[in-house]
Design a protein that fits this description.
Helix content is 18%, strand content 38%. It has 248 residues and is of the alpha+beta class. Helix 1 links the parallel strand 1 and strand 2. The chain is globular and about 45 Å long.
Length: 248
């Protein structure tokens, strides 16, 4: 089975945590969200090829840098293209107030060769909303993405969707065409100890019931989630194995 990890790394804040985690796991495919372009050097130095889709420009440390989503793998692969589907078209510098409105949104779809078969793997990062509920921008971006995805061959798409199941109506829309592979016993993928909201008194129990990171699959793909790994970023990393079951 193809081993996959998907993880929102929160830019450059947790390198000392997730780089050793990735080294130890030795995954076939790594999907990242909120990844600075400069972080890809880590993968290139370890023999990975990468595809990067910038979504916003952020001020990190003492420089401005593109931040977006990426796929890294040592397997042979090709990329159909990077699809942009947001309300904005041009990459801009974050104003530090509402990065959702300043971001362009994208997904990457890669065709990855593994054990004589082609696996279609995608990653994305959806619009964040203040309370986990869908808003007009999130609905717009999600509908544009789903329209694009209808034209793709069967695939798995993973990443930070910012739509807690049970709270956000877009979850029901997505799962009309995809299987949610995250076991129901996992209630939240936000790390209480590392997330910026962990030390702030809040009304919503985001660390008890905000599952926002997913691997969604279509037949003939079957996903077996090994675990959600906390302690590597402000979101948990999802460690999973993917295989094809032509009987699905």
């Amino acid at each position: 089975m193809l081993k996959l990890i998907t993880l929102n790394i929160e830019m450059d804040k947790h390198y000392s945590r997730f780089f050793p985690f990735l080294d130890n796991e030795d995954a076939d495919v790594i999907c990242l969200q909120e990844v600075p372009e400069s972080a890809l050097r880590y993968f290139h130095g370890r023999g990975f090829a990468t595809v990067f889709a910038p979504m916003i420009i952020k001020k990190l440390s003492d420089k401005e840098e593109a931040v977006g989503v990426a796929i890294a793998t040592k397997l042979p692969f090709s990329t159909q293209k990077v699809y942009y589907h947001g309300a904005k078209e041009n990459l801009v510098l974050s104003d530090g107030k509402d990065p959702g409105k300043n971001s362009v949104y994208a997904y990457i779809m890669a065709k990855i060769d593994f054990n004589g078969e082609t696996y279609n793997i995608a990653t994305t990062h959806m619009v964040d909303t203040p309370n986990g509920k869908e808003n007009d921008l999130q609905i717009l971006v999600m509908n544009k993405m789903l329209e694009h995805l209808k034209n793709e061959e069967a695939h798995c798409i993973c990443g930070d969707f910012n739509m807690p199941r049970g709270y956000n109506k877009l979850y029901d829309l997505v799962t009309t065409n995809y299987i949610d592979s995250i076991p129901i016993e996992y209630k939240s993928s936000l790390d209480r100890n590392l997330h910026r909201m962990g030390s702030i008194p809040i009304d919503q129990p985001i660390f008890d019931c905000y599952m926002v990171d997913y691997i969604f699959a279509q037949a003939p793909y079957k996903v077996e989630v090994d675990r959600l790994q906390f302690g590597v970023s402000d979101h948990a990393g999802i460690v999973a194995e993917i295989y094809k079951n032509e009987n699905l």
